[in-house]
Amino acid sequence: YRPFLLTLETLTQLARTHHPELKAAALLIEKAKKTQSLASKNSLPDFMIEVMRWDVHSGPNQWQATFKMNLPWILGKYDAERRRASAEVSQAHAEQMAIHNQIMFELTDLFTRVATAEKMIEVYQTGVLPQATQSLKTSRIGYQSGKVDFLSLIDSERTLLDLQLEYVGALVQFWQSVAKLERSVGKEF
Predict the structure, then answer these.
(1) How far apart are CA 33 and CA 35, in angstroms?
(2) Predicted confidence (pLDDT) per residue in 54-107, tens digit
């Protein structure tokens, strides 16, 4: 067992930079913004210049130059496309915020579980297990001197074993919570 030294703020920063779902959401926002940029460029006028040459058999060749300009904003041809692209950007931001909120909730919950398990481990290490061990030693001495009966000795030993099992359970809870926290952050510590 080693103490967990990371703070919730550090975990939050790590999650923002390493969590794969947040990275994917950021890429979706970037894609939606590029789509929006392309949609707004569609409303710009298109210019075309055509040059044609006619081969006239009985005289000089003739040339014709034509200038054309498309004005898409007059008919509002691409308005719906721009609105859709803008809505996609908003939706991508909302999805990113939802993912962020979910991850932050998970981080807070798991951080609390790690801290709670760590406190339980400390209580077992510093108080409960040493007291139970001392109680067993006292019971053994009392049994050897004839002051304590065999059932009391067995009861003290069973209590110590139960407390050791609970201690191991707290260790398991701690390491499981740390593993889930690593998954939630997206990085191993």
Answers:
(1) 5
(2) 887 777 888 889 988 877 666 666 788 888 999 999 999 999 999 999 999 999
Query: 14 with 186: CB under 8 angstroms?
Result: yes
Q: Which amino acid is at 108?
A: T
pTM recorded for the entire structure: 0.68
Residue the block writes with tokens 């290490």: 125
Q: How far apart are CA 111 and CA 89, in angstroms?
A: 32
**41: which 2 tokens?**
């460029």
Contact 164, 157 (CB under 8 A): no
Q: Which two tokens stand for residue 77?
A: 């041809």
**What percentage of the chain's residues is helix, strand, coil (to nearest 5)?**
75, 10, 15
